[in-house]
C-alpha cells in the first residue's frame, strides 16, 4: 500500500508539473497584460501535434521540437496582434470572451488538420523505469520535472536579473508610469503571448510520450492550468507552481484510489470550491485587484 | 425621431400580429421537414438565449455554464419519463424546476464573483454537469445517453410531428417574449439595467443587487431547462454531447450576436447563428472535400472574436445607431460587457 501511494505521488507530481507549466504561462500573461488567456491549453495541444507531425516527417526530434515551439510562439504573437491588441482597452470580460473564441477556433483548426486520431511520441530517453523509494518512475517524468524547474529558473533569471525583465515588472506594477519612462506595454504584451505560446508548446511536447495527444486535449489542460492558477491566487508565480503540483497529486490519488472517470470532475470541484470559499487563492493575499 | 415614434405607434398594433401570423403559417406553406426542423431548433435556442439575454444584457453577468442547465432540463425529462414513468407534462415541469433549484443553490455564492472569476466559475459548473452526464452511468446512461423518450402529450394532444412541435415551441417563444417585454418595462427591468450600468450606483439607489442578479440567474436557468426539456421531447433521445462547453459558448455567441440588452436580440442571434451553422455544414464540405460540418466551430470562434473586438454591442443595434447619428458609436472600450453594451431603449 505505501508503495502504491508513493507511485501515485510520483505520477501526480509529473502531471502536476505540466499543470504548473500551463499555469505559469497563464499567470505570467495575466500579470503582464491583464488577459486571462483561455486559449493557453490549445498552445500545448498544437505544439504537441506539430512536433509529432514534424517528427513523423523525418525531422530529427530535437529540431522538430524546437521548430514547433518556435512556430507556436509565433502563433501566440500573431494572435496577440490580431485579436488582443485591437481590443486592449476593452473590459476583462470582453477579453476573456475573445480568448474563448480563439480557443474554440484553434481547436476546430486542429481537428481540421489532425482529425480525431490519437497520436503519440516516443519517450525522450530509452530505458526502463527508475526505482525511487519503492515506486517506479518513468524517465519521461524526470524530463517533465526538469522542464518545470528549468522554466522556473529561466523566469526567475529574466524577471530578477535582466534589464528587460525589470522593465516588464515595471509595466505590471504601473502601466502609465512604465510608459512614461519609455516602456511600451503593447510590446510587452506581444512578447508575453509569444512566451506563453512557447511555454505551452514545450509543455505539450514533454507530456506527449506519457499521454494520448488528440486535437482536443488542450481544453482540459487549459482548464486544469486555470484551476492550478486559481489555487495559487491567479497572480502569484509560486502559487501557480504549488497549485499545479497540488492538483496533479490530488487527481492522481483520486484516479488511483477512487475512480478515474471522476478525475476531470475533481479539478472542476476544486476550482469551484476555491472560487467560492477563497477567491484570493489558497496562498494568495487579497491584492488590489478586484475579485 | 418624433415622427418615427408616431409611425411605429400606428403600425405596431397591426404589424406584429401580421408578422406572427405569417410566420406561423410558414410550415404549412413550405412543406419541408428540413425547414421546419431548423425553425424548431431556432425556437429552442431562442428560449435559452432570451433567458441568457436577461442575465447578460440586463443584469450584466455572464454565464459559460448554460449548456449545463440546458442539459439538466433534457436529462430531467429523459430520466423521469423513461426510468420513472412520469407523465410527460410533469416531467417537463421538473425540467424547468430542477435547473432553477440548482441555480438558486449555486447562484448566491457564484454571483459574488466578478468578471473572469464569474466566467471561470460558471464554466467550471458547466463542465461539472457535463462530466456527471458522462459518469453517472446508471442514471444517465453514460456517453451513449438515454433513448426512447416518449412524445410530449397532454390530454388527447400528442406532439408527435414536427409541425405540431413547431407550434408548441414558437408559442413558448412568443409567451417568453411577451413576458420579457413586460419585465423590462417594469421596476425590476429598470433596476436590472441600473445594475448593468453600475453596480455601485444601483446599490446606492437602494437596489438589492445581489437578490436581483440571483433572480435573473434563476430565470435564465429556468428557461434553459425548459428548452432542454422540450429538446428531449423533440429528439426523443439525449446524450451528453450537445450539452457541453461548446453549447455554452454557442449560447453566449447568440446572445452577443443579437445584441445584449435588446428586445429582439436573442431571436436575431439564435436565428443568425443557427442559419450560419446550417450554411457552414453545407458549404464546408464543398470547399474542403472530406471535411465534415463539425468545423463550423472554427467560424463561430472567429465571429465571436471579431464581434467582441469591433462590435461588442452586437448586430441588433445596427438600425438604432444609424437612426441616431448624434449618438457616438460605442467602441470596444466603452461597450464591453458588463457595464457597457449601452442602454438602447427598445420599443
Would you give an account of this structure?
- The complex is a heterodimer of chains A (291) and B (347).
- Chain A has one domain (2-277): ABC transporter involved in vitamin B12 uptake, BtuC (Orthogonal Bundle), CATH 1.10.3470.
- Chain A is built from eleven helices and two strands, in the order ααααββααααααα.
- Chain A has helices at residues 2-33, 40-56, 61-84, 92-114, 139-161, 163-173, 175-180, 185-207, 217-231, 237-258, 263-277, and strands at residues 130-132, 135-137.
- In chain A, a hairpin with a 2-residue loop joins strand 1 and strand 2.
- In chain A, 52% of the residues are buried.
- Chain B has a single domain (32-335), classed as ABC transporter involved in vitamin B12 uptake, BtuC (Orthogonal Bundle).
- Helices cover 72% and strands 3% of the residues of chain B.
- Chain B is built from 15 helices and four strands.
- Chain B has helices at residues 2-29, 33-58, 66-82, 88-110, 115-135, 137-140, 162-185, 187-197, 199-204, 209-235, 245-258, 265-287, 296-310, 318-323, 332-335, and strands spanning 146-147, 152-154, 157-159, 237-238.
- In chain B, the strands form two sheets. Chain B has a two-stranded antiparallel ribbon with strand order 1-4.
- In chain B, helix 11 packs across helix 13 (296-310).
- The radius of gyration of chain B is 20 Å and the shape is globular.
- The two termini of chain B are 13 Å apart.
- Classes of the chains: A mainly alpha (291), B mainly alpha (347).
What does the radius of gyration of chain B come to? 20 Å
End-to-end separation of chain A in angstroms reads 42 Å
Strand content of chain A: under 5%
Q: Largest sheet of chain A, order of strands side by side? A: 1-2
- Kindly provide the name of the CATH class of chain A: Mainly Alpha
Average pLDDT of chain A, rounded to a whole number, is: 84
Radius of gyration of chain A: 19 Å
- Overall pLDDT level of chain B: 80
Number of helices of chain B: 15
CATH architecture of chain B: Orthogonal Bundle
Assembly state here? heterodimer
Helix content of chain B: over 70%
Structural class from helices and strands of chain B?
Answer: mainly alpha
What is the distance, rounded to the nearest whole angstrom, between the alpha carbons of the first and last residues of chain B? 13 Å
Amino acid at each position: 500500500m505505501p508503495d502504491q501511494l508513493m507511485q501515485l505521488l510520483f505520477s501526480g507530481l509529473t502531471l502536476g508539473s505540466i499543470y504548473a507549466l500551463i499555469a505559469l504561462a497563464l499567470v505570467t500573461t495575466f500579470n503582464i497584460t491583464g488577459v486571462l488567456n483561455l486559449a493557453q491549453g490549445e498552445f500545448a495541444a498544437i505544439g504537441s501535434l506539430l512536433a509529432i507531425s514534424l517528427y513523423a516527417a523525418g525531422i530529427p526530434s530535437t529540431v522538430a521540437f524546437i521548430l514547433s515551439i518556435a512556430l507556436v510562439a509565433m502563433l501566440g504573437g500573431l494572435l496577440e496582434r490580431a485579436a488582443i491588441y485591437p481590443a486592449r482597452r476593452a473590459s476583462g470580460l470582453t477579453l476573456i470572451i475573445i480568448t474563448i473564441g480563439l480557443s474554440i477556433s484553434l481547436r476546430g483548426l486542429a481537428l481540421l488538420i489532425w482529425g480525431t486520431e490519437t497520436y503519440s511520441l516516443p519517450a525522450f530517453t530509452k530505458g526502463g523505469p527508475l526505482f525511487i523509494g519503492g515506486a517506479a518512475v518513468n524517465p519521461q517524468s524526470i524530463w517533465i520535472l526538469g522542464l518545470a524547474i528549468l522554466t522556473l529558473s529561466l523566469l526567475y533569471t529574466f524577471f530578477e536579473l535582466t534589464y528587460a525583465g525589470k522593465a516588464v515588472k515595471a509595466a505590471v506594477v504601473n502601466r502609465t508610469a512604465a510608459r512614461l519612462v519609455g516602456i511600451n506595454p503593447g510590446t510587452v504584451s506581444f512578447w508575453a503571448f509569444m512566451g506563453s505560446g512557447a511555454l505551452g508548446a514545450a509543455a505539450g511536447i514533454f507530456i506527449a510520450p506519457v499521454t494520448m495527444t488528440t486535437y482536443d486535449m488542450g481544453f482540459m489542460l487549459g482548464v486544469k492550468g486555470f484551476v492550478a492558477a486559481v489555487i495559487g491566487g491567479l497572480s502569484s508565480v509560486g502559487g501557480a507552481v504549488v497549485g499545479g503540483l497540488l492538483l496533479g497529486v490530488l487527481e492522481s490519488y483520486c484516479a488511483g484510489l477512487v475512480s478515474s472517470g471522476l478525475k476531470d470532475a475533481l479539478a472542476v470541484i476544486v476550482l469551484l470550491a476555491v472560487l467560492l470559499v477563497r477567491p484570493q487563492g489558497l496562498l494568495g493575499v487579497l491584492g488590489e485587484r478586484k475579485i | 425621431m418624433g415622427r418615427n415614434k408616431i409611425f411605429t405607434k400606428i403600425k405596431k398594433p397591426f404589424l406584429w400580429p401580421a408578422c406572427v401570423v405569417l410566420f406561423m403559417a410558414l410550415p404549412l406553406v413550405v412543406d419541408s421537414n428540413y425547414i421546419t426542423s431548423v425553425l424548431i431548433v431556432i425556437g429552442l435556442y431562442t428560449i435559452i438565449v432570451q433567458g441568457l439575454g436577461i442575465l447578460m444584457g440586463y443584469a450584466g453577468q455572464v454565464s459559460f455554464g448554460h449548456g449545463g442547465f440546458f442539459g439538466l432540463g433534457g436529462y430531467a425529462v429523459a430520466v423521469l419519463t423513461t426510468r420513472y414513468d412520469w407523465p410527460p407534462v410533469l416531467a417537463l415541469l421538473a425540467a424547468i424546476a430542477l435547473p432553477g433549484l440548482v441555480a438558486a443553490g449555486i447562484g448566491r455564492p457564484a454571483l459574488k464573483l466578478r468578471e473572469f472569476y464569474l466566467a471561470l466559475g460558471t464554466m467550471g459548473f458547466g463542465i461539472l454537469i457535463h462530466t456527471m452526464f458522462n459518469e453517472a452511468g446508471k442514471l444517465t446512461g453514460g456517453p451513449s445517453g438515454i433513448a426512447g423518450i416518449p412524445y410530449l402529450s397532454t390530454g388527447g394532444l400528442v406532439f408527435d410531428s414536427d409541425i405540431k412541435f413547431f407550434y408548441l415551441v414558437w408559442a413558448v417563444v412568443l409567451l417568453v417574449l411577451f413576458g420579457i417585454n413586460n419585465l423590462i418595462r417594469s421596476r425590476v427591468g429598470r433596476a436590472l439595467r441600473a445594475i448593468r450600468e453600475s453596480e455601485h450606483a444601483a446599490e446606492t439607489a437602494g437596489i438589492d443587487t445581489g437578490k436581483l442578479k440571483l433572480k435573473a440567474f434563476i430565470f435564465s436557468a429556468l428557461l434553459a431547462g425548459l428548452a432542454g426539456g422540450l429538446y428531449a421531447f423533440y429528439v426523443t433521445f439525449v446524450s451528453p454531447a450537445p450539452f457541453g462547453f461548446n453549447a455554452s459558448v454557442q449560447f453566449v455567441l447568440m446572445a452577443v450576436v443579437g445584441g445584449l440588452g435588446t428586445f429582439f436580440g436573442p431571436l436575431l442571434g439564435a436565428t443568425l447563428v443557427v442559419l450560419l451553422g446550417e450554411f457552414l455544414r453545407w458549404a464546408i464540405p464543398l470547399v474542403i472535400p472530406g471535411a465534415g460540418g463539425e468545423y463550423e466551430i472554427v467560424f463561430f470562434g472567429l465571429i465571436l472574436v471579431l464581434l467582441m473586438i469591433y462590435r461588442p454591442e452586437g448586430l441588433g443595434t445596427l438600425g438604432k445607431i444609424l437612426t441616431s447619428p448624434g449618438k457616438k458609436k460605442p467602441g470596444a472600450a466603452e461597450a464591453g460587457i458588463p457595464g457597457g453594451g449601452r442602454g438602447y431603449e427598445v420599443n
